[in-house]
């Protein structure tokens, strides 16, 4: 049962071909922490198929009437191929990422997805990491690359390396909204030592 612990609301964007662990782990941990979260399809259809043929039915779509990025306190980008290029091709999402960054509002991206932030010029001078196969994109666009870190927090920006770091990534999002005590409670609940 969901027990709300925060007034913040998080959007996890779901593109065809996403890495489902990177998206759904975040959703699961936010649920456990009591942080409201929506899965948001970038397609008109709310049903999206992941890179490993897992079908995800999203809460919302960016194309539906009344949808607004401003309803959210953080935008989260899972990685995956072709999920990441599909996210990058979503113009409304890319515009919202730039607006959030300019306003100092929180963004989080994992695996290949930090490359989207880099290509949009949002990582220049910022500490960040990504999947090793995409770290050159971050470096080429002026990020201070922390290549060996599982998760990097730079103010309102959280980046991470991939499916294997998804739980740590999700916990940093929990920490952003609710602090260390909530992180320890969620860690204990999922038996993460």
UniProtKB/TrEMBL annotation:
Pfam families assigned: DJ-1_PfpI (PF01965)
Classification via InterPro entries: Class_I_gatase-like (IPR029062), DJ-1 (IPR006287), DJ-1/PfpI (IPR002818), Prot/Nucl_acid_deglycase (IPR050325)
Coiled-coil ranges from the UniProt annotation: none
Residue ranges constituting the DJ-1/PfpI domain according to the UniProt record: 9-175
Protein name, entry field: DJ-1/PfpI family protein
Species of provenance: Thermophilibacter gallinarum
């Amino acid at each position: 049962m969901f027990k709300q612990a925060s007034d913040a609301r998080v959007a996890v964007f779901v593109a065809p071909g996403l890495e489902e662990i990177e998206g759904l782990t975040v959703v699961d941990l936010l649920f456990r922490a009591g942080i409201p979260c929506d899965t948001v399809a970038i397609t008109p259809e709310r049903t999206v198929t992941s890179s490993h043929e897992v079908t995800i039915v999203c809460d919302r779509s960016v194309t539906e009437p009344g949808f607004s990025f401003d309803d959210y306190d953080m935008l989260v980008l899972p990685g995956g191929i072709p999920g990441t290029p599909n996210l990058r091709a979503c113009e409304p999402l890319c515009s919202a990422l730039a607006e959030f960054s300019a306003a100092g509002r929180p963004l989080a991206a994992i695996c290949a997805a930090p490359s989207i932030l880099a290509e949009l010029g949002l990582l220049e001078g910022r500490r960040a990491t990504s999947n090793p196969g995409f770290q050159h994109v971050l470096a080429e666009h002026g990020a201070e690359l922390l290549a060996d870190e599982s998760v990097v927090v730079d103010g309102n920006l959280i980046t991470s390396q991939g499916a294997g770091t998804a739980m740590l990534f999700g916990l940093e999002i929990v920490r952003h909204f609710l602090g260390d005590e909530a992180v320890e409670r969620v860690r204990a609940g999922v038996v993460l030592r």
